[in-house]
């Protein structure tokens, strides 16, 4: 799996987003994990909330997902149900950890959280908040960019997130990834997006290596900032050309 990312503070004093990419190669195929979290800017501990969420996700990948996939070997029966169950448990655990930190610090903490597991040609996506996932593909030469998550919020704020003394279940989606790329991004990246700019920058036929993907994502982020976007801008793009080694990034 090839990936690239952008991580821009924008016009804010600090970046309250956090991103994570991990991949591991097994005998049964490559396991890929990506996540994007956006700490709530109206909260005093938005940065801490997003980083706590990402750290919990990375620990889950290392201690839960990797051992589980290793034990499965080439078996795929009930794989999706098991990943879904473990993902829901992770989101409940992150909520409880955020609750405990809020009690200890006396500060409100909340974050969006979108994470994607890809294994054996299928994606498993967990989502809460207004960060988004898009499919990007080009069937028969026609550029398509399709959002496949539902925003949990509007211009007045989030209706669902992790933290804030509430426990909502994440939305869950799964399916075949095929030749489509997957883009995970925060609202600073997608808000005010221009389809013509995305079409120019995100042509999947040209996004074949990490350097080019990162360059194109940066072009979109720079365009948004020139148009007046003040929020942090973060995104990860995944496409199906394979790597032959393990790799990870966490910001």
Task: Describe the protein in words.
The protein is α+β, with helices and mostly antiparallel strands and 251 residues long. It has one domain: 4-Layer Sandwich (Phosphatase 2c, domain 1). The chain has 5 helices and 15 strands. The protein has helices at 46-72, 79-105, 187-190, 195-201, 210-226; strands spanning 2-8, 17-26, 29-38, 110-111, 113-119, 122-128, 132-137, 144-147, 153-154, 157-158, 162-163, 171-176, 181-185, 233-239, 247-250. The strands form 4 sheets. The protein has a 6-stranded antiparallel sheet, covered by helices on one side. A 5-stranded antiparallel sheet has the order 1-14-13-7-8. The chain has a two-stranded antiparallel sheet with strand order 4-11. Helix 1 packs antiparallel against helix 2. The longest helix is centred in the N-terminal third of the chain and has 27 residues, at 46-72. The radius of gyration is 17 Å and the shape is globular. It starts with a strand and ends with a strand.
